[in-house]
Amino acid sequence: MSSTSQIGVGLLGLGVVGGGVAELLLAHPDAVASKVGCPIKLRGVLVRDKNKYQDSKVPFELLTTDAKSILNDPEVRIVIEVMGEEEPATSYIREALAGGKHVVT
Question: CB of 27 within 8 A of CB of 20?
Answer without folding.
Answer: no
